[in-house]
Design brief:
It is a single chain. By secondary structure, the protein is mainly alpha-helical. Helices cover about 50% and strands about 10% of the residues. It is built from seven helices and three strands; from the N terminus they run αααααααβββ. It has a three-stranded antiparallel beta sheet with strand order 1-2-3, with helices on one face.
Length: about 230
């Protein structure tokens, strides 16, 4: 199992910082935002085996309950954002709020994939998954990288890119629901006894999807094209 592309996480944080009209005037602003947005995936450093990876990754560092504490640690590490010597510096509470926002952004980008995220730890191990985008999605990542590279001085386009992080997955959720409905109707029309059915984004989604379903005692897979 592969985690959400860390490049996407880092780029989303950099875009979120660059879109702000008032940010600390330090060259570290965008890199620190990128680090904060990608930081929850440091949990993989504590996994030594595939089983530990399954149990640890997207765990407590990705949970709502731990977010305030984790955000505090990140804010302490992002000292250039609130250092008194930085022009336009933030207050420490504002830096903390920004780091918490970057953690929420990370959680969102993980929740929209098929692997799921244990956002309710330590109270529940349930993995929230929206099955909207594939683990690596160029239609999501490339606009972010382009924005960081070429659109730093064009705040309007940066804002549109940030909005894309939310609009694009929502479109994927809609496509998933449509494919699910179409698949159920198809199996019903064919008279097939399908008891469970899940539609997942495949490589090069949203153009390709995969239906995983149980027919009798057999689990089958079917590829779909948008």
């Amino acid at each position: 199992i592969i985690p959400m592309d860390p490049v996407t996480h880092a780029a989303s944080g950099a875009v979120a910082m660059l879109v702000l009209p008032r940010r600390p005037l330090t060259r570290w602003a965008a890199p620190l935002a990128a680090l904060a947005a990608a930081s929850p995936d440091l949990d993989v450093l504590f996994a030594q085996t595939p089983l530990q990876f399954l149990l640890i990754h997207r765990g407590i560092s990705h949970s709502f309950a731990a977010m305030p504490v984790f955000g505090l640690l990140l804010a302490l590490c992002c000292r250039p954002l609130w250092n008194s010597a930085t022009p336009g510096r933030w207050s420490f509470p504002r830096a903390w709020l920004f780091c918490c926002a970057m953690l929420l952004l990370h959680i969102w980008l993980d929740v929209i994939t098929t692997y799921g995220t244990m956002v309710f730890l330590p109270f529940s191990h349930y993995r929230v998954r929206l099955n909207s985008v594939y683990i690596i999605d160029f239609l999501l990542t490339v606009p972010l990288l382009w924005a960081v590279w070429r659109l730093r001085a064009r705040r309007g386009l940066l804002l549109l890119t940030l909005v894309w992080i939310f609009v694009y997955p929502v479109l994927g959720i809609g496509l998933n629901a449509w494919h699910t409905l179409q698949s159920r109707e198809r199996f019903q029309h064919e008279g097939r006894a399908v008891s469970r059915l899940h539609v997942l984004p495949d490589a090069f989604a949203p153009f390709f999807w995969r239906v995983i379903f149980k027919e009798g005692d057999t689990v089958r897979a079917l590829s779909l094209a948008a």
